[in-house]
Amino acid sequence: MKSKVYFIRADHKEPASELARKTLRVINPFWESLNLNSSSIVGLKIHFGERDNYGFINPAWLTSLIEKILNQTRRVFWTDSNTLYTGPRSNAPEHLLLAAQHGFSLDKTKLPVIIADGLVGRDKFEVTLNLPFIKKAKIASLFATIDYLFCLSHFTGHILTGFGGAIKNLGMGCASRVGKLEQHSNVHPWIKAKACRFCLLCMDFCPASAIVPEENKVRIIDEKCIGCGECLAVCPVGAIRLRWSESSELLQKKMAEYAFAIQNGLHLQAFYLNFLVKITKDCDCMSQEKKFIIDDIGLLSSQDPVAIDQASVDLVNHQAGADIIGKLTNINWRHQLEHGEQIGLGVRQYELVEVDDNF
């Protein structure tokens, strides 16, 4: 059975008020399936953008959606989880400051920002799965307590997964730091000795006693390490490093399984909105501006993350006249879609419904 994906043409050069109107128009077809009331808790999952990168979704484009939600519940907020790698989005204080600098502040949007996995990414909730690669997904704890999730994704290319859309925003973006580690690597972290300040905080938090001091530095005992990622989360200087060892295919499949944990393993209802504007070769995690690879296309909405991502990549490649995603990244991006369909996350067949924009 095909999933419906709604589509409206849009360009980021249009006035913000016009993008806000179109965002609401493309969401309206499934709005009636929401049963929002005054006690509903709604999370708007979004990437706040990296420092010096302005490809992220402009919060001004979402003002009409925010007003519509606020008319039914005041319990709504922006959210994202902390990154696995070091930087301003690896801890809640700097993450909040960066979000505010990019326009995601209470005074500008009427919504607060809550970081989903706590101060340094240690706040997690386990979802038991019976899937090929992930048996227990370690998700950011906030997502276990909300009723509705709006997954707002800026569609881009991606150096590791070919493209990033709803599945990546859901599976990687809603994972705790240890959950991100599980997706990215199947080996233990390592310590960059020159960066280590010998504070021993990692030793205090290691549940396996796998970290030992050695001449003003620490060492991880591989035989004891359980790969939990606690040391990565608490190191204040980023001296503990990840081994980026996972193949793109396995990473994509793990990511799809984590997305399944969020959508199918929790008591929440998820909706997806992909922005096919300002499309770049790399994702918004890059700390620099990137040139656009094609002209803007528009906005898509769906209740199926696989279908909306399949429709997104199809529209991008159709406009380019070739598989531009595969050509630019040299990645087989189909793995996340194929595996997502196999495990029941969604379906690849879709009906693209262009929304009437005559009023």
Can you describe what's shown?
By secondary structure, this protein is α/β, with parallel strands linked by helices. Helix content is 30%, strand content 20%. The protein has helices spanning 16-27, 63-70, 92-101, 106-109, 166-171, 177-184, 201-205, 230-234, 248-265, 305-320, 324-329, 334-343; strands at residues 3-9, 42-45, 76-80, 113-115, 124-128, 136-140, 148-154, 156-158, 162-164, 190-191, 211-214, 217-220, 240-241, 269-276, 298-302, 350-354. The strands form 5 sheets. It has an 8-stranded mixed beta sheet with strand order 4-3-2-7-14-15-1-16, with helices on both faces. Helix 6 (177-184) runs antiparallel to helix 9 and helix 9 (248-265) runs parallel beside helix 12. The two termini are 31 Å apart.
Mean pLDDT: 92
Distance between the termini: 31 Å
CATH C-level category of the largest domain: Alpha Beta
Strand arrangement across the biggest beta sheet = 4-3-2-7-14-15-1-16
Can you tell me the CATH superfamily of the largest domain? Answer: LarA, N-terminal domain
Order of helices and strands: EHEHEHHEEEEEEHHEHEEHEHEEHHHE
Quick overview of this protein structure:
This protein is an alpha/beta fold and 359 residues long. Helices cover 30% and strands 20% of the residues. It has helices at residues 16-27, 63-70, 92-101, 106-109, 166-171, 177-184, 201-205, 230-234, 248-265, 305-320, 324-329, 334-343, and strands at residues 3-9, 42-45, 76-80, 113-115, 124-128, 136-140, 148-154, 156-158, 162-164, 190-191, 211-214, 217-220, 240-241, 269-276, 298-302, 350-354.
